[in-house]
Amino acid sequence: MEVHQLVYLVAVAEEASFSRAAERVGVAQPSLSQQIKKLEDELGTPLLDRLPRRVVPTAAGERLLGHARRVLAELADARRSLADGRGEIAGTLTVGAIPTIAPYLLPDLLKRFAVAHPQVQVEVVEDVTARLVEMLDRAEIDLAVLSTHDGGPTIHCERVGEEELALLVPALHRLAKSKAVRWDALAGERFLVLQEMHCLSGQVSEVCQRQKLRPAVAMRGAQLSTIAEMVSAGLGVSVVPAMMADRDTNPDRVTRPFAGERPTREICLAWSLLRYRTRAAKAFEQAVRERVG
Amino acid sequence: MEVHQLVYLVAVAEEASFSRAAERVGVAQPSLSQQIKKLEDELGTPLLDRLPRRVVPTAAGERLLGHARRVLAELADARRSLADGRGEIAGTLTVGAIPTIAPYLLPDLLKRFAVAHPQVQVEVVEDVTARLVEMLDRAEIDLAVLSTHDGGPTIHCERVGEEELALLVPALHRLAKSKAVRWDALAGERFLVLQEMHCLSGQVSEVCQRQKLRPAVAMRGAQLSTIAEMVSAGLGVSVVPAMMADRDTNPDRVTRPFAGERPTREICLAWSLLRYRTRAAKAFEQAVRERVG
DNA sequence: TGCGCGTGATAGGAAACGCCTATGGAGGTT
DNA sequence: AACCTCCATAGGCGTTTCCTATCACGCGCA
Lengths: 293, 293
Fold this sequence. Notes:
2 copies of one chain form a homodimer.
Chain A: H1 3-15, H2 18-25, H3 29-43, E1 48-50, E2 55-57, H4 59-85, E3 91-97, H5 102-116, E4 120-126, H6 129-137, E5 143-146, E6 155-170, E7 190-194, H7 199-210, E8 216-221, H8 224-232, E9 238-241, H9 242-247, E10 253-256, E11 264-272, H10 279-292
Parallel strand pairs in A: 3-4, 3-5, 7-8
Antiparallel strand pairs in A: 1-2, 5-11, 6-9, 6-10, 6-11
Helix pairs in contact in A: 1-2, 1-4, 2-3, 5-10
Chain A binds a DNA duplex through residues 4, 17-19, 27-35, 37-38, 50, 52-53, 55.
């Protein structure tokens, strides 16, 4: 069981093809076939089902893949840990962020971070909380910026600040001129909310519930910008992060704060406790804290 | 960074010598020097300090060692997981047990287990709780039998039963004839207890505290058999596991249960959540449950 | 001070290994 | 039925790893 064999196995499994995997890892296809065969011989069991049009892992292959990915992640950690030991803040940093935070927080943050740490190559992954957490576990991202997270023993999740939620209404809406909107003024409004996989959706219903408001959900959107455009078109109102509102310049809709206790949601940093935290990751975390706090 | 290089590095670090490490891993010493050098060249930093009489890891080496051990543990897991997939209950199983349980629980258990699963080679490590937990984390043991454990997110600890604690007194002691000993009868007795690293020591003081007894600790012993001999010699009394008493045939001391609510301590199984649990390990766990429950 | 002893590094050759190109063969597709 | 895609096999080449033999260094002992 050699490192390159595990690399090849993972590549074939992910590409579902020997030829594509060979291209990806930069060797000729026969070399790859050879090494996989050798691995299968050593372990005494087929790892891949060569089906006519695609390649799928056998049960044993699936089993080995889990271990293989952890081995490779650990090796990557080793390299980064040693590079860190030389005092450099450098290398590649992959951060994840949820779609309801990423477009409002990251652009500015990335620009500043790039200036402060020009040696660090930052990659961004935008996905919903559940998937980001999976990616943390699989070491596919180093760090995630998200809101609520139900936990899991291997993920560290740390609150770094909070953001206000505000009401987004069409510019011609009766509430558009209010200084601050009272919750009871929203009875009967049509609400535009995100799909349930977005945590903002749950957070909004929670807030509504606390305010004894049973909103009529007119539509579930896949992204905030869709919802914003719907609001502009007068199809309903929505509760959105204030950060989004700050950047919104469309005159067809306006954002209004809520009266009384303003609803907020947490902004958290999460990382895996099993992976090495590079200096670059810590520096990025600090940048997020400064920007949010 | 190849697997065999990591194996060599770990061997050299543990043997503190190239030659001994070479012998251990079964290659000639020059091959080992060569591979370590290659690893150092690849990583761009020395990993080992070749001192006149011994070899010690550098800071970078120490750092890499942690990752290397995890990589190797993960590879071992992979092999065992695949072997398990073929349905065999076989291979090597390393179990740890604390010294106040091991000699009373294991002999009988191991004998039965060997009959039920002749294909499994069981190795036993006897050490105190804290060290067993470390060894679980480092994948040096598969399973630990212990009593209390303060936790840690990567260790699963499961109560499988309890054992009674009883009073051990010299045969000629005034309490030796009691049917059951009341706690208030122990005021003024000289107590022989274990060193603090043994959890039994803490458990006994906890029980005493609950019974409003402030025992005079006459001596702290390193093992129960020492304490038992001290009791035989009339140097004091002790609170010991009933399991120990069951096997004790020395006529110079007797064990008496406590009156009222009999004190007990838990017996737990612990394993690492990060390591693969073999069928052999699960079978052993089951054997412990049957024996204890 | 000089000599052995233990230990790691170096040198050179043999065996093993991985990768490559060329080719074969099985399954679909047109 | 011919073609195409995709993986397996064969044979050659360059590299790597391992071995044995030997060297270099520091230490302890006479």
